[in-house]
């Protein structure tokens, strides 16, 4: 089958899109011989910053000359983006072959699309004889398909309120779920400054070597560079990267914890930091019209976007092309950033999980925002915003709210 046919068929496999639990995935992984990788594994969970951490570790390890596989979700344009070998998306044929292997191992076991895709990625990594696997958790941690593997280093980038229907509505509850990627006597990194008590307690219960931003490691931003240090290392005058320094600081802690198995030089760190990028995360598209793409989809992530817009003002107006999924905190997300938006162009997405026009309109009414134009599609919203832009005074368009919002625009040829 072609990849498109495989993906359509995989969607029909299980009666639930999300079905927490690793028992079924573990059974199939065992049949495929995936449970004991022959190289180190890094698993990355978190509310925001997961993708940046994956990109940073991947870039540095590639610069150091290692063979690296990276698995991330979701994707912007093509499914293949989720599985990378040596920094490049894998081919259709490689995915199709791995899907067939997973199917043959399933027997009577049914898997969700995410579980099926995760195992297919691991099959590809196993065959590629890699030096390092980098795996991004889809949601939560404890019951996520990625957690069938015991990582050498577990990373939690940050914990904020998100996916409340699945993970709970407090940082402690969400933290407990994400800390499920920890293993006894393993090394774990927490990339934010204040881990929930549940995360620290879970780490202590497993006797995990626990490294927290601002405690066991830290960074200082300077005018033209930044410094990083841990108990064992001092790195001064590091080059800036396009990604948030807090996440890159987390990356360097994970790299240090891997040094006993995968040596990385200062030169490789610098090269990797310079090259590290993450499509769709405060991504500037230059041209007559300045466009900023951002896949942020919760209040804390959008706060980072807001800070960027404040710190990098334009001469003209800032127009927003915006939509979100219905299970997100739409109201608070709008509230966080509305002060820096001159006019909104809003439309529902083309997905079952979309926030309807009624839901979106309700959120703007609730906040008493009148500078809004409602459109039939995100593509129409972007076209209308483009017509309003005055390039002479350097207006700009910010496209954000979810991966789907960005992908629906980019897939249309932006």
Folded structure, characterized:
This protein is 38% helix and 17% strand. By secondary structure, it is α/β, with parallel strands linked by helices. It has two domains: 3-275, 3-Layer(aba) Sandwich (UDP-N-acetylmuramoyl-L-alanine:D-glutamate ligase); 283-410, Mur ligase, C-terminal domain (Protein-Tyrosine Phosphatase, Chain A, Alpha-Beta Complex), CATH 3.90.190. The chain has an eight-stranded mixed sheet with strand order 4-3-2-5-1-6-7-8, with helices on both faces. A six-stranded mixed sheet has the order 12-13-17-14-15-16, with helices on both faces. A hairpin with a 4-residue loop joins strand 9 (217-221) and strand 10 (226-230). Helix 3 (50-63) packs across helix 9, helix 7 packs parallel to helix 8 and helix 11 packs parallel to helix 12. The longest helix is centred in the first third of the chain and has 16 residues, at 113-128. The chain is globular. The two termini are 30 Å apart.
Question: Can you give keywords for this protein?
Answer:
single chain; 414 residues; alpha/beta; UDP-N-acetylmuramoyl-L-alanine:D-glutamate ligase; Protein-Tyrosine Phosphatase, Chain A; 2 domains; eight-stranded mixed β-sheet; six-stranded mixed β-sheet; 15 helices; globular
């Amino acid at each position: 089958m072609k990849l498109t046919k495989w993906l359509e068929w995989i969607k029909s496999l299980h009666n639930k899109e999300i079905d927490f639990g690793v028992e079924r995935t573990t059974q199939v992984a065992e049949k495929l011989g995936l449970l004991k990788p022959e190289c180190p594994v890094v698993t990355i969970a978190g509310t925001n910053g997961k993708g940046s951490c994956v990109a940073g570790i991947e870039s540095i390890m590639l610069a150091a000359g290692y063979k690296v596989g990276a698995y991330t979700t979701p994707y912007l344009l093509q499914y293949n983006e989720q599985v990378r070998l040596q920094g490049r998306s894998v081919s259709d044929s490689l995915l199709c072959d791995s899907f067939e292997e997973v199917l043959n191992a399933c027997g009577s076991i049914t898997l969700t699309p995410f579980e099926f895709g995760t195992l297919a990625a691991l099959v590809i990594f196993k065959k590629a004889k890699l030096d390092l696997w980098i795996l991004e958790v889809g949601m939560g941690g404890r019951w996520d398909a990625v957690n069938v593997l015991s990582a050498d280093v577990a990373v939690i980038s940050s914990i904020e309120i998100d996916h409340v229907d699945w993970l709970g509505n407090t940082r402690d509850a969400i933290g407990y779920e994400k800390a499920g990627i920890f293993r006894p006597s393993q090394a774990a990194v927490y990339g934010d400054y204040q881990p929930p008590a549940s995360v620290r307690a879970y780490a202590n219960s497993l006797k995990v070597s626990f490294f927290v931003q601002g405690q066991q490691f830290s960074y200082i931003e300077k005018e033209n560079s930044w410094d990083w240090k841990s108990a064992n290392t001092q790195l001064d005058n590091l080059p800036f990267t396009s990604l948030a320094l807090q996440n890159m600081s987390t990356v360097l802690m994970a790299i240090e914890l891997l040094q006993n198995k995968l040596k990385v030089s200062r030169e490789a760190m610098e090269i990797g930091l310079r090259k590290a990028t993450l499509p769709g995360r405060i991504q500037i598209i230059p041209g007559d019209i300045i466009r900023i793409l951002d896949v942020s989809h919760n209040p804390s992530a959008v706060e980072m976007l807001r800070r960027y817009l404040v710190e990098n003002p334009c001469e003209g107006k800032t127009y927003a092309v915006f939509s979100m999924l219905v299970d997100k905190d739409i109201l608070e997300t709008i509230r966080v950033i509305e002060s820096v938006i001159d006019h909104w162009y809003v439309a529902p997405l083309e997905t079952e999980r979309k926030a309807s026009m009624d839901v979106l309109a309700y959120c703007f009414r609730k906040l008493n925002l009148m500078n809004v134009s409602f459109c039939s599609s995100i593509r129409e919203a972007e076209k209308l915003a483009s017509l309003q832009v005055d390039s002479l005074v350097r207006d700009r368009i910010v496209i954000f709210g979810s991966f789907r919002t960005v992908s629906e625009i980019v897939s249309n040829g932006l």
